[in-house]
Amino acid sequence: MPNLEHPAYPAADLLHLESLVPCRESQVSMLLSIFGERQQFSFPSLFIYGHTSSGKTYVMKTLLTTLQLPHVFVNCVEYFTSRLLLEEILIQLQGCSSGTEQTSPVHCDTLNDFVRLFKQAVASWELQDQTLYIVLDRAEQLREMEANILPAFLRLQELTDRNVTVILLSEIVWELFRPNIGCFEPFTMYFPDYSIGHLQKILSQNHPPEYSADFYAAYINILLGVFYMVCRDLKELRHLAALNFAKYCEPVVRGEANERDTRKLWKNIEPHLKKAMQTVYLREISSSQWERWQHDGGEPGQLKGLSAHTHVELPYYSKFLLIAAYLASYNPVRTDKRFFLKHHGKIRKTNFMKKHEKTSNHLLGPKPFPLDRLLAILYSIVDNRVAPTANIFSQITSLVTLQLLSMVGQNDQLDGPRYKCTVSLDFIRAIAR
Question: Hey, what CATH topology would domain 11-190 get?
Fold first, then answer.
């Protein structure tokens, strides 16, 4: 029995829509109830929110396109000023009314011009009083525009005296939108995150035709078992599934196992999925590079990207400052003379091997150090002579701003500021190379 039912739309269209939006039937059913029939006045404005990759944009596009409802779809990130946004809405309306993609330029400087031109465009479209839907994706960008834009969209139906509904799609809650002076409250609707069962069902639909659905579903189950705790993004999981499926099939292709040998397939894919954990969300290498690296049997250290910290753009002396800060954070103060002076004299080894110092300093974390110690180590590790100019001190401030160094305590202490180095040993090794 179909989950989507509405007397105003054909059953075949609703059945096709249900197949296109798996695990979002309840949200689509709610939207259809709000929309009503084509000629009915819908709610003036809707606010739909939820985390990224929860299906807001996809469901709205699919719903409006499948049921052939008149609509305008605009991404507020692409049209980041009020003028660009209003003109794009009018251009799309003009293109729909003329039936061609080539449209004449539209100039809309004020909201009054938009209301006037909007009425003309809707009248020329011959909608027969059907509801027109204006969908504004990434609607949080509206908060950066003029103060009258958001309230005007929320009550556009009243301003234009037309059958129009404005739908705002956002990743943040309505309370962060509401102006201090108040405005028309939209109907709010929440899209929850996909559960692991929903992700399993959605991802399993993309199985290659040369393999059975059960075989691909078992692969998706393994993939979610590894990545679900660190990644709930459907787009990222779909990318990872497509990227690593060839490696999962290798024993089957070579004839070493069949599709039911789950244990052999898991042992083959497990180390590669763990390596793929290094690049979740980063996109630091292309898909072709990752496949080539898997085929060659590379090691994790061979990845050239952000996670390996092999490419950091810092000024020349900022790199030496960061190295000096790391040495000051992880070396005891009394070792400075031993490490950074050429003629430090004889030092007994027992002085540096006390019982409580046998634990690695990397396990204990970075220690704070004063500014004068940082500069003293800097002067000793740089080959040429460095003058303590304002440029050096400004670079220290920049490192703090970049959160590569952190300031400890107050800046107005009598003994001067104290700092900590917050980067890892791999980061310092990459810079030192």
Answer: Rossmann fold (3.40.50)
